[in-house]
Design brief:
By secondary structure, this protein is an alpha/beta fold. It has 2 domains: about 140 residues, Rossmann fold (3-Layer(aba) Sandwich); about 220 residues, Dihydrodipicolinate Reductase, domain 2, CATH 3.30.360. The chain has 10 helices and 17 strands. The strands form 3 sheets. It has a 9-stranded mixed sheet with strand order 16-15-12-11-7-10-9-8-17. A 6-stranded parallel sheet has the order 3-2-1-4-5-6, sandwiched between helices. Helix 1 crosses helix 9, helix 4 runs parallel beside helix 5 and helix 5 runs antiparallel to helix 10.
């Protein structure tokens, strides 16, 4: 019989209630939540509204949870500002750590965590949930392996209606820009996974369109491109160049008046992958979330001829094979796609004390790209990424 991992949870907000707890329930034979810490008294109330009385103890301070001898591992699901302190404390106490993304807004903090991993002999798995989704695995099978040549360029566009949650637009020193660091870090992570090289430079533009801090709720003109001090972007566009000359572009907007869209295009030498990844949260206030919407799909366009192809005028497109290769089965699931899979991977890494796929070395590159995007937005200059 495999070991039951006793887990401590630091941070019991919405991401715990609606995403991680349902996944841990599904893996009940692998994990047992022993204790939970959250500074807000509402955390316990809101948890009980959804699940009834909690089968674990709410403790009064994070130090008590992290130092507990009855805990094998710690999940840090807090705001980004305290990620580094909580994670290093857990490593010092001999605990493996599941750390919600983003690790930090500072590459220096990520490096500190990496150093403590080495000193402690423990590991940190970063909660990059899309890396563990069947969507990512399907794209990876098409892109990796070299059958269709190397990656030439990638593009991701994500649009959503305005998100009223204020934390997304409050840019503090330690929490960073939520739309760039908290949301787009998913896309940076997947770009870095497929580029085959490290990112070298970034050029970006962005700003605020919807709300100012004045609470007047008046629309702000797009001409005001630089976020005010203490505020975040609600839209941005960026181009990333990699050392092997692969290019990636991304557009993220939280001010789109139409239906949300998440589309990823990867151009290979002999094929093109067009992937639509859709998850919608459907939840009434005080109820459990359902992840639903248009099922994700991946279209594959193949051309076996050698490139470059000389086309004669009038231009006719080369014959292509178009296949629908993937149809996401995650509909009306009580968890985010990939959530249960990432916890199953964390369990296996705990048993073997082995380095996870989504590790802090990977997170260091993701953080570097996000920080470069924000610097480019503010300076209107191309930013070189130094290592």
């Amino acid at each position: 019989m495999k070991k039951l991992i006793h887990l401590g949870i630091a941070g019991a907000g919405a991401v715990f209630r609606h995403m991680h707890y349902p996944a841990l329930l599904k893996l009940g034979k692998k994990f047992r939540i022993t204790s939970v810490y959250d500074p807000s008294p509402e955390a316990k109330v809101k948890f009980r509204q959804l699940y009834g009385r909690e089968p674990f103890e709410f403790v009064k301070n994070p130090g008590e949870l992290i130092a507990s001898q009855g805990i094998d591992a710690v999940a840090v699901l807090t705001p980004t500002a305290v990620h580094t302190d909580y994670t290093i404390s857990a490593l010092k106490n001999g605990k493996n750590v599941f750390l919600e993304k983003p690790v930090s807004v500072s590459s220096g903090d990520v490096k500190k965590i990496i150093e403590w991993e080495k000193k402690s002999g423990r590991f940190v798995q970063v909660g990059m949930v899309l890396r563990y989704s069947s969507f990512y695995r399907a794209v990876s099978e098409l892109v990796n392996g070299g059958k269709y040549g190397r990656v030439l360029w990638m593009n991701w566009i994500e649009t959503r209606p305005f998100d009223p949650m204020p934390w997304r637009y409050v840019n503090t020193k330690n929490n960073g820009d939520a739309v760039v660091f908290d949301k787009a870090v998913h896309q940076f992570n997947l770009f870095n996974a497929f580029a085959g090289s490290k990112p070298s430079e970034v050029m970006a533009m962005g700003g605020q369109y919807m709300l100012s801090k004045s609470k007047t709720r008046k629309l702000r003109a797009f001409s005001n491109e630089v976020p005010l001090k203490g505020e975040s972007c609600d839209h941005f566009m960026a181009m990333i160049r990699y050392r092997n000359n692969v290019k990636a572009s991304i557009t993220v907007s939280y001010v789109s008046p139409h239906a949300r869209e998440s589309r990823w295009v990867i151009q290979l030498e002999k094929a093109k992958v067009v992937a639509h990844f859709e998850t919608f949260v459907d939840a009434a206030r005080g109820s459990r979330r359902k992840w639903r919407g248009n099922p994700s799909s991946i279209y594959f366009f193949k051309d076996d001829r050698s490139y470059p192809v000389a086309w004669k005028y009038p231009m006719s497109y080369p014959p292509q094979e178009k296949n629908l290769v993937f149809y996401d089965e995650y509909r009306n699931e009580p968890m985010h796609p990939g959530s249960a899979a990432q916890w199953a991977a964390f369990y296996e890494s705990c048993l073997k004390n082995s380095k996870p796929e989504s590790n802090t070395g990977v997170a260091l590159l993701d953080t570097a790209v996000a920080a470069a995007v924000m610097r480019s937005v503010k300076t209107h200059k191309t930013v070189k990424i130094a290592y």
